[in-house]
Design goal:
Length: about 300
């Protein structure tokens, strides 16, 4: 029951407050990670062993600290709640996604491009309205898995140290996990560790999306299309999510000046503004489903 209450408290704090506007712990962690990378990967010459060392230096001390703080009498429960709150990005996801949908509805394509550019790493300056809607929908589905469900999963598995370990690892993957000359070797460990930590959550998310949408289509898209995607975890999440919504995602996109021809995911018409909102509803509904299952499990074990 204590786990249930801590989870509800963390989700509620995120809903009420959103991401901290100042002194966000992940911003400070990002600065630390940058300094570590500059020391161990100067000029992009670091090897895989340097990447492993960098990951350990960045993640393990803070994970251990969260473990010790969570064991403090009286204050430990508060530490658990704050750790989950700091790791969740549910409200932030809506704050980024809804303005994209609103701009598309108003026909303000330049504003929609600018807004979706805050959410994705692809180039957005030349996207048409369908391209913006597709990018926004994909981002909601994928970030719902990374920034919401995976954080919940690791909190439920291992409490504060679990969610801290996951969130810091995921942040390092976002900073170091690029396949380019600078990070090809140094970022290998961060990318592989993040893949491992997301393997089970991503498949639970794919199942969640399927259950809350067009179930048969989502499961079929997951089975047939996910293996074609280059990411072992984003593939199941986005294929199932696209199928659950009954829309087509994927296709060509430009990243850092290079055109990537990606497989088509899902089935049905191209995404529109309303599908960004439908994807967000899928994430919110999934969170409610997970909380309901946690409540039932807690009552059963009480």
């Amino acid at each position: 029951m204590s786990l249930l209450l801590a989870t509800l408290a963390g989700v509620t704090l995120d809903g009420l407050l959103g991401e901290p506007k100042r002194w966000h712990p992940l911003v400070a962690f990002g600065g630390l990670a940058q300094r570590i990378e500059q020391r161990l990967n100067s000029g992009g010459h670091g090897w895989r062993s340097h990447g492993v060392t960098g990951w350990c230096l960045a993640v393990l001390p803070l994970t251990l600290l969260s473990l010790l703080l969570a064991r403090l009498p009286y204050l430990g429960w508060l530490v658990e709640v704050l750790a989950l709150y700091a790791a969740l990005g549910l409200r932030s996801l809506g704050e980024h996604a809804l303005p994209v949908a609103q701009a598309l509805r108003l026909g303000d394509l330049p504003e929609a491009r600018k807004r979706v550019g805050y959410m994705v790493s692809r180039q957005t300056a030349e996207l048409d309205s369908e391209g913006v809607a597709r990018a926004g929908t994909e981002s909601v589905l994928e970030n719902g898995s990374d920034a919401v469900f995976a954080a919940l999963f690791w909190f439920l598995v291992a409490g504060a140290p679990g969610v801290v370990l996951y969130r810091l690892s995921n942040t390092l993957d976002a900073m170091w996990g690029y396949r380019n000359p600078r990070f090809e070797r140094f970022g290998w460990a961060a990318a592989k560790i993040d893949d491992g930590l997301n393997y089970i959550p991503a498949r639970l998310v794919a199942l969640t999306y399927a259950l809350l949408g067009k179930t048969a289509l989502a499961l079929r898209c997951w089975q047939q299309q996910a293996p074609q995607w280059d990411s072992p975890n984003a593939g199941p999440v986005m294929a199932s999510g696209a199928g659950a919504l009954g829309v087509s995602l994927g296709g060509a996109a430009t990243y850092h000046g290079e055109l990537h021809v990606r497989p088509v995911l899902g089935a049905g018409p191209q995404a529109r503004a309303r599908d960004i909102e439908r994807a967000l509803n899928l994430v919110n509904g999934g969170v409610l489903l997970w909380l309901a299952l946690l409540l039932i499990g807690s009552l059963y074990l009480a």
